[in-house]
Amino acid sequence: MSNPGFNGMSPQILERARTIVDRTIQRNIKGLDFLTTPPVPVGLTPKEVLYERGTLRLYHYLPQSDEIYRVPILMVMATTNKAYVFDLAPGQSMVEYLLKQGFDVYVIDWEPPLPEERGLNLADYTQDFIPTCVDLVLEDSSEPDISIVAYCMGGVLSLIYAATHTDGPLKNLVCLTTPVNWEEMGLTAIWSDKEHFDVDRLVDTLGIIPQDFVRASFEMLRPAQRTAGQMRVWEQMWNDDFVKSFRAFDRWGAETLPLAGEYFRDTTKELMWGNKLYNGTLVINGKTAKLSDITVPIMAAQAEHDHIVAYEASKPLMQLVGSEDKEEIVLKGGHVSLIAGPNAARRMWPRLAVWLGERSV
Amino acid sequence: MADQQKKQQREQPTDPGEAFRNLITDWERNFDAMANRFMGTSEYSKAMNQFQNMQLEMQKRFNDLMAHNLSNFNMPSRDDILRLGESIRGIEKRLAAIELQLAKKGKKDKKDKDKKNKRKGPPRTKLPPSMQNENAS
Q1: Is the CB of residue A341 less than 8 Å from the CB of residue A92?
Q2: In the predicted model, is pLDDT for residue B1 greater than 70?
C-alpha cells in the first residue's frame, strides 16, 4: 500500500514541491552572490612567462609528473580569444590534464594588440611569432623537435607555419576546429562578401579592429545564446558546479580580443576572399604555403555542432595535407565545448593524450 | 524508437526544472534558426555593411578634422604618435632577435646546458602505455 503523504498528496509530488521550494530559496541567496562577487579566477595552473613582446606571450607550465614525454607541446591559441580557455579551472583544464599525463606544455597567448601594432600582418604571426616561440621552446627544453596543438585560427597560423617551415623542428601537428575551406564559413562568409564588405575602409579608419566588433561577429552567429545562457544560469543558480563553469565560460566569451588591422585585412583578403590556403596559392614573405607540403603526423579534431567553423570548412584538411600519418576525429559538441568543459574532458582530451603520447618519444 | 523514448522523457520530466530548460533550449534553437535565415541573406549583408560604412565615414571625417586642428596647433596627430610607436616596435623586434641569437650562442656552452638540464626537473623518458606494455612483455 502506497504512502498517501501530506494531505493526501503523493510522495512524488511532495518531493517535487520540496525541491522547487529549496531551489527557490537557494536561487535567491546565491543570486545575490552571483551579482556581487568578482569574476571567477581562471588560468590557475602554475606557469612562468618565458617570453613577452607586444601582443605575444609565451608561457611554460610547470611539469606535474615525475617523468615526462621527450617532445614538448606548444599550444597556439586563436588570435581572437585568451588562452586561458585551455586552463579554465582546476579539474576543468586541458593544460592540467596534459601535464598530469606527462607532457611538457608551453602555450602561446595573445594580449590585445596596442595601437602601434596595427601593422602586424599574417607574416608576422606565422614567420616571426610562431618560429620565435618554437625556437624558445626548443632552447628551454633542450629538445630538437616539438609538437604543436592549435585551436581555431591558431590552427590556421600553425598550418601556414608548418607549410612554410617543412624542414623545421615540427614533429606532430594537432589542429582543433581549424577552418581550411573559407567558402564554407557560412554566415561569416556572407557578411564579409567583398561585394558589400569594405575591409580597406574598416582597417584604414580604425587601425585596430575593436573588441566589440570581434565579439559582435561571434554573437551574431547565435543571437539568442546570451539571453538563453542568462535564463539557464538563473534556473540553475542552486547548482554551484554549473554556475562556476558558466561564469568561467562567460568571462572567457566576454574577453574577446581586438585584432591588428593588417592581420585582419590579410585574413579577409587572402583567406576569406581568395581562399588561398585551400587553393594552395597563399604566398607569405615569398614562400608558398601549400598544405600538401606538410608531411608530419597530423591529427584534426572537429565538432559536430560547430556554429563558428562548420565541419565542411575544416573537413578538407585531411585530403589536402601530404602526411601519411593522419587522423581525423569528429566529436559531439560545439566550437568551445570541443576543447573545454566536461564534454572535452570526457571525449577529446584522452584521445589527444593517447595520439600525442605515441608520437612524443 | 529512441526518439520516442526521448520524447516521452521530455513529456514527463523527473526534475522540476527540466521542462523550463527544455523550453529555453527550444526557444533558443528556433530563434537562432529564424535569425540566421534572416541574417544569411545578401540583402542583410548589404544593409549591415552599408550601415557600418556610414559609421566609418563619419569617424574618418572626425579623425581628419582632428588631425587638421592638431596640425594647426603645431601638435602631432594620433597617426604621428602611432608611427613613432611603430618604429619603436620595429627596434624592439630587432633587439628581440639579437637577444635570441645571443641567448642561443650562450646556451651552447656545455656548462650552462648541464646546469639547465638539472634545473629542468623530470626526466624526458616517459613512454606511452602501449610501449610500456610492449617493453614489459
Answers
A1: yes
A2: no
pLDDT of A14-53, one tens digit each?
Answer: 787 788 888 888 777 777 777 778 888 889 899 999 999 9
Per-residue pLDDT at B120 = 61
**Domain extents in chain A:** 6-36, 47-210+239-358
Q: Look at phi and psi of residue A304 and say left if phi exceeds 0, alpha if psi is from -120 to 50, else beta.
A: alpha
Residue B111's alpha-carbon distances to B102, B104, B106, in angstroms, are 16, 14, 10
A342: which 3 cell numbers? 566536461
Q: Write the DSSP assignment of A283-341 as a string of letters.
A: EETTEE--GGG--S-EEEEEETT-SSS-HHHHTTHHHHS--SSEEEEEESS-TTTTTSS
Please choose, from the candidates A251, A225, A255, A247, the residue with its C-alpha nearest in 3D space to the C-alpha of residue A33: A247
Residue A148, φ and ψ in degrees, nearest 5: -115, 130
Task: Give pLDDT tens digits for A313-335.
Answer: 999 999 999 999 999 999 988 99
Q: Model-level pTM?
A: 0.86
Write the residue in B20, B122, B130 that is nearest to A67 by C-beta.
B122
Question: Which residues 276-295 in chain A show a CB within 8 A of chain B?
Answer: none
Contact A141 B96 (CB under 8 A): no
Q: pLDDT at residue B11 above 60?
A: no
* A230 and chain B in contact, CB less than 8 A: no
ipTM of the complex: 0.77
Q: What's the CATH class of domain A47-210+239-358?
A: alpha beta
B24: enclosing H helix or E strand: helix B18-39
